[in-house]
Structure formats: structure tokens, C-alpha cells
């Protein structure tokens, strides 16, 4: 008991429904712990738990349900992600981080009582032309320097006035996003902060600026609502190591098992392209996980992993369904031995760095055929 296994698209998959030994264990108690760190780091702010992209691959419904008793609200990337949470019983605030993509979504934003970002003229026009049954909640996106989406700081006053004068707009907020909050102390952070404040021109507008990195390192940006994402999943948001991230607990353990073992002589090549060549008598283990499951194909020889709790390394090119690893000197490890790809013993950030990416991409890239096992429900 206590563990449920869930497939994608809301379909319930029975325990042990997958024949392969590969699964991702999701530690919901770690996510609750990490959310509490976000709250304690910004004690005067409310925190929207960012659960876009299926909660960064951790299962949006299960994560939202686990956090709902204490979370102030949630943030997602699109209407479908928001409705999935509403349908699973989440009643808290849900923010659409990119607002709507077409005007016909506004009826559902209204019916589901969602909060939306308004980041461009078209969205502004759609909101002004809408005829909702309840007042719409709009957070005006300010482009304070990221230059991805949002209104120029100088336009904020006019947009705020237009929405403020609209009878069917209720709550009004201001939101911006940092481009370099993961590099604490970088002068661009202060420039964005100053440009955001200048945009508001001293008006008392409910504001939201902080992603995980700013939650942990930038108290001046905490304001009314924070938006922690990656930190909830136990990953440091910082480029370099930072003490503020030390208490985070990893929330995903990607595990498989050894499905074949062989001994190779020095000089023998291994796997596609013979990328790895044995430089000594080598005991090779094969584990059931590959790039179709989300294990990065660009992981080089030497990428860390753990077998039966002991550290070892990837050898040979990652294939679609299998990887090879070095079992030399681990004579006692055989078929069925557990292999941890990332988790408590193998930091996902180290695997990501070895493969030239970030843990965000590893987590969101977990393949559909990998069952998620939620623990600590
Ligand atoms: C994804 C996202 C966040 C969360 O960022 P993390 O780095 O994962 O904390 C916050 N705000 C916006 C606008 C986002 O798109």
C-alpha cells in the first residue's frame, strides 16, 4: 500500500503492468518537503507550485494532490494542463503562465476560474472583448529583460489602465521572469528588478517575479507570489553549487535492472559505433533503459550511475532500449541487480551535465513507457 502506479493521460495502469524492470519512483514526501523550503525561504509570499509539463515529468495530478493541502496554488503552461488539475479535484488557484493561445479558450478560463497571464496585444484585445460570467483574473506580463514574452515596461501603465477600466476584469497582477536568476549576483538580475519596478511606477500591484533560483537567493524579488518549479523536484536551480539548495531532496529515482552480463577481452569494442573499447578485461552489464525512455543519448562514457547501490559508469553509446555499464570488479552483481540512473545516489544534475543538458530536460523527457510509481501518497 502507499504506492500507486499511473500511466499517462489519466489512464490507471495496474501495479507491475510493465514487463520491463524500468520505472521512475516519485517521492511525494520529498516534493512536500521542497515546497516547504520554498515557503520558508519566502515567508511573506504565497507560492504557486509550478506543475507544468506533467509536473516536470513527476505526474501533475499526483503532485498537485500531494501539495493541495498546503499549496497556495499552482502554475501550468496551458489550458489542458489546468483542466486536468480541475478535473482531478484541485480547487486552488491555477495560473496559466502563457495565458490563452486563442480567444475561444476564455470561456473555459472563466468556467474553471483560472488566472491567466496577459502578455501581448492580441491577448489584451481578446480579454477586453470577452463576455465572461465572472470577472477575469489577469496578470500582466512585463518584459523586464528576458525578451521572450511580455509588454515593454513603458507600456505597463496603459495596459493596466485598460484592463482596470474593463468591467469584466477582476483581479489584476503583474508578473515577470528572470533570465539569469540561476547566477546569483549577476548584474542583469538587478537590471530586471529595476526595470520591473519602474514599469509599475510605484503603483501597488500584486506581483510575481521569482522562479526557484530567485526564491532561494533574491529576497527583494519575493513579493506577493513566488513560482518555484525545479526546486520542488529536488534539483538546485543554480548554475554553480549554492548553499541555499543544500536542503532540497531529490524527488525522482529512475531505476532499472541488469538484464545481461558478459566478459570482454581487452581491445573489444562495445555497442553502436564501437565508441567504447575495452582497455582491460571488462565485465559488462546491460540495463533496460535507453533514449526512448528519456535517458540522454548524448551521455558519454563515464556518465555516473549506481548498480546495487555502488557507483559505476556508463560505457558505450546509449541505444533506444538499453545501455551498457562497467561491472568490472563487481563479480557478485548479476542478472536482476538494480541500476539507478538518477536519484539519491546519482544526482540527476550530474547526469545532465555529463550529457550536455539540464535536469529539467531529463525529467520532462521521461518516456511514455516508463511507469511512474508514486510513494508517500
Ligand atoms: C517554468 C517557469 C517557472 C519555474 O521555473 P523554475 O526554474 O523551474 O523554478 C516560473 N515562472 C515561469 C514563467 C515559468 O515558465
Automatic annotation (TrEMBL):
Cofactor(s) demanded: pyridoxal 5'-phosphate
Isomerase among keywords: yes
Entry EC number(s): 5.1.1.1
Record SMART domains: Ala_racemase_C (SM01005)
Pathway: Amino-acid biosynthesis; D-alanine biosynthesis; D-alanine from L-alanine: step 1/1
Chain sites annotated for binding substrate: 148, 320
Active site: 52, 272
InterPro entries named among the record's database cross-references: Ala_racemase, Ala_racemase/Decarboxylase_C, Ala_racemase_C, Ala_racemase_N, Ala_racemase_pyridoxalP-BS, PLP-binding_barrel
Claim: Isomerase is one of the keywords in the record: yes
Residues with PTM N6-(pyridoxal phosphate)lysine: 52
GO molecular function: alanine racemase activity; pyridoxal phosphate binding
A Pfam family reported for this protein in Swiss-Prot or TrEMBL: Ala_racemase_N
UniProt GO cellular component terms: cytosol
Reaction(s) catalysed by this chain's protein: L-alanine = D-alanine
UniProt keyword list: Isomerase, Pyridoxal phosphate
Enzyme class: isomerase
Residue span, Alanine racemase C-terminal domain: 251-375
Coiled coil: none
Any one GO biological process: D-alanine biosynthetic process
NCBIfam families assigned to the protein according to its UniProt record, in alphabetical order: alr
HAMAP family referenced in this protein's UniProt entry, alphabetically: Ala_racemase (MF_01201)
Name of the molecule in the record: Alanine racemase
Amino acid at each position: 500500500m502507499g504506492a500507486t502506479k499511473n500511466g499517462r493521460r489519466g489512464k490507471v495502469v495496474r501495479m507491475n503492468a510493465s514487463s520491463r524492470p524500468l520505472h521512475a519512483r516519485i517521492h511525494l514526501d520529498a516534493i512536500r518537503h521542497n515546497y516547504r523550503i520554498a515557503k520558508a525561504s519566502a515567508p511573506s509570499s504565497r507560492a504557486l507550485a509550478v506543475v507544468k509539463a506533467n509536473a516536470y515529468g513527476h505526474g501533475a495530478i499526483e503532485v498537485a494532490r500531494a501539495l493541495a493541502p498546503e499549496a497556495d496554488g499552482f502554475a501550468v503552461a496551458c489550458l489542458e494542463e489546468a483542466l486536468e488539475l480541475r478535473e482531478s479535484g484541485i480547487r486552488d488557484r491555477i495560473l496559466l503562465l502563457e495565458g490563452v493561445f486563442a480567444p475561444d479558450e476564455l470561456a473555459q478560463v472563466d468556467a474553471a476560474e483560472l488566472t491567466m497571464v496577459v502578455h501581448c496585444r492580441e491577448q489584451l484585445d481578446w480579454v477586453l472583448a470577452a463576455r465572461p460570467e465572472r470577472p477575469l483574473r489577469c496578470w500582466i506580463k512585463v518584459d523586464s529583460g528576458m525578451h521572450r514574452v511580455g509588454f515593454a515596461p513603458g507600456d505597463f501603465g496603459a495596459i493596466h489602465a485598460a484592463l482596470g477600466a474593463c468591467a469584466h476584469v477582476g483581479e489584476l497582477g503583474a508578473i515577470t521572469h528572470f533570465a539569469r536568476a540561476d547566477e546569483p549576483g549577476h548584474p542583469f538580475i538587478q537590471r530586471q528588478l529595476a526595470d520591473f519596478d519602474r514599469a509599475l511606477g510605484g503603483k501597488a500591484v500584486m506581483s510575481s517575479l521569482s522562479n526557484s533560483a530567485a526564491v532561494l537567493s533574491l529576497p527583494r524579488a519575493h513579493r506577493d507570489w513566488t513560482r518555484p518549479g525545479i526546486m520542488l523536484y529536488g534539483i538546485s536551480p543554480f548554475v554553480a553549487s549554492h548553499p541555499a539548495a543544500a536542503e532540497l531532496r531529490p524527488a525522482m529515482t529512475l531505476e532499472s535492472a541488469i538484464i545481461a552480463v558478459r566478459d570482454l577481452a581487452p581491445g573489444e569494442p562495445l555497442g553502436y559505433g564501437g565508441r567504447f573499447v575495452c582497455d582491460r578485461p571488462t565485465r559488462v552489464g546491460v540495463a533496460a533503459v535507453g533514449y526512448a525512455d528519456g535517458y540522454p543519448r548524448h551521455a558519454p562514457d563515464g556518465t555516473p550511475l549506481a548498480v546495487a547501490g555502488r557507483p559505476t559508469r556508463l560505457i558505450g553509446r546509449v541505444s533506444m532500449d538499453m545501455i551498457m555499464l562497467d561491472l568490472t570488479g563487481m563479480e557478485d552483481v548479476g542478472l536482476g541487480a538494480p541500476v539507478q540512473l538518477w536519484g539519491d545516489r546519482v544526482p540527476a544534475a550530474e547526469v545532465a551535465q555529463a550529457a550536455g543538458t539540464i535536469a529539467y530536460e531529463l525529467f520532462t523527457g521521461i518516456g511514455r513507457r516508463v511507469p511512474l510509481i508514486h510513494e508517500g501518497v
